[in-house]
Amino acid sequence: MKATFEVDKVSVSHRLKEVDLTIPSGRCIHILGPNGAGKSTLLNTLGAIVPATAGQVLLNQRPIEAWPLPVLASFRSILAQHSEAVFSVSVADYLSFFSHDEQSIVPTMLEKALEVGGYFSQSINRLSGGERQRVEICRSLMQVWPAIEQGEAVLLLDEPLQGLDIRHQYGFLALCTRLCELGNTLILSCHDISLSANYGQDIIFMKHGQVTSYGAVGEVMTAQNLENTFDCHFAVKERDDFLEIQVCAPIVG
Amino acid sequence: MAGKSAHKSAFLLAFSVSAVLVLAVLARVWLQDTPLSLKQHITLALQIPLVLTAVLVGAVLAVSGATLQVVLRNPLADPGIVGITSGASLVAAVLLLITPDWAKGYLHYILPLGCFIGALTTTFVIYRLARTLLGSATAVILSGIAISTLSGAIIGWLYLFSDAQSLRNLTFWLMGSVYQASWPILLVSGPIIVLSLAYQIKQAVYFNRLYAGDIAALSSGVQVQRLTEKSLIACAIGVGAAVSIAGAIAFVGLLVPHVLRLFLGHDNRLLLPISGLCGASLLLMVVLASEYTGAITLPVSMITATLGGPLLVWALLKGQLR
């Protein structure tokens, strides 16, 4: 399978330590790890936002820093954890500023999952946290929508589920599955282990700036790996068609 | 979202208002009972520089205010508050006091240069300070306030050591006036202001992406840091030129964009050009007020602040700012 990313001994001072990864295209990859494990830094490094201080990131066989920014912007998108909005920009304007054709028309597939159509006339800073997050997800996907339709997009999403209610969590995760079926590569960080276990195809476990294990869900989603990563006791049970994960207690001492 | 035709009519409206005001200022001389040759002379030597000054200075202050607010992601930003104006007027004040008599004839050329140096220096100092303070936009505002307070204090000290004539000149640099303009200064500063305006308006489409934060803007292909630096320099140069013609005029950069956002929304492609036209109209109105009341010495900042205070409070109440 064609590799999207080849990450070779990449370090970012105080953040990442010698990360090695090969990420094939068309996969849905979830990054799991405790706070400060380096999840956001890894996503930002893959997205050419934070440069590696050592090592090399290849995106489609080409060093990430060699990509012209406008070309990169046409097929890779990054969703950061959002900050407070200072100006009361209307949602319609906000989306149109990032849309490739400067229209605020949300593609049907996105509208179905994110349901942002009702907020068009509202100001971005009047939305609740979850509503804002749906608009932000929509914005980051609209930036590269033509590439998504071609199945050539690379989507790097930092905690996209943050603040979403249960309906939109599932709507969004179903959208992710659909996007990967089209051939797009999706890498996202997450704090909901059960959702990742059932909706991610591959899992990257991170701790202290290092990748501790990486592989298909069935192989790496083990109680052992979870305990090493999160310092808690876990019970993993395989049901008919899903993985049930229970957190028992933090490991003391 | 307003459609393309609504954009066009908003622009046309603002443009017609400024055009009417320009004509109103120019018409005054022609309605008087004076010989034709005198009318021509007054128009060419006084009225046209006056109108050009009002238009250029008003436009660049309003547009730079709008730019700074978006680039620094702070609704409080304004060339005055960020310290660009005060740096420029400090240098101008010092130059006025220390220039020896034999060089006074060259003041037309020395002053604009001094104002640029002042504006650029404060912008550079503020930007470096802010970078050291982790590059936060709040830090830029705070260092700006520190710098402008300091410049104000130094100008205050200069007051103590100046004679009556210099005092009047200093007041001009502190409160602004559109009546000091002359062709030589305009020919130097005018083109610079036009370039600064053109640059800022050209970047409007990228400014729009800054609303979503640095990473989102970078993700969509905007070189955020380079854009920020270039825009700050464009503002500094443009405002420096404005100060060299008309002294320090307060509030235009804060007031105009905020009131306009209530009506036009946040699309900078629309907001920046119309801010320019409205800034120009605002100063033209000041000119008209002084022309028709005969109060030539009316300090511009006094009027802009008198109008601006209540309007800004109104904009606040309308929920523009939080």
Explain what the structure shows.
The mean pLDDT of chain A is about 95. Helix content of chain A is about 35%, strand content about 30%. Chain A is globular. In chain A, the strands form 3 sheets. Chain A has a 6-stranded mixed sheet with strand order 6-7-8-3-9-10, sandwiched between helices. A 4-stranded antiparallel sheet of chain A has the order 2-1-4-5, with helices on one face. In chain A, strands 11-12 form a two-stranded antiparallel ribbon. Chain A has 10 helices and 12 strands. Chain B has about 325 residues and is an all-alpha fold. Chain B has a single domain (about 70-315), classed as ABC transporter involved in vitamin B12 uptake, BtuC (Orthogonal Bundle), CATH 1.10.3470.10. The longest helix of chain B is centred in the first third of the chain and has 36 residues, at about 35-70. Chain B is globular, with a radius of gyration of 19 Å. The interface of A and B includes residues 74, 98, 124 and 140 of A.
In short:
Chain B: Its main location: membrane. The complex is a heterodimer of chains A (253) and B (322). Chain A has helices at residues 39-46, 69-75, 91-98, 108-114, 129-143, 145-150, 166-181, 193-199, 217-220, 223-230; strands at residues 3-12, 16-24, 28-32, 54-59, 62-63, 76-79, 154-157, 185-189, 202-207, 210-216, 232-238, 243-250.
Q: Which terms summarize this structure?
A:
heterodimer; A: 253 residues; alpha/beta; Rossmann fold; six-stranded mixed beta sheet; four-stranded antiparallel beta sheet; 10 helices; 12 strands; B: 322 residues; mainly alpha; ABC transporter involved in vitamin B12 uptake, BtuC; 14 helices; globular
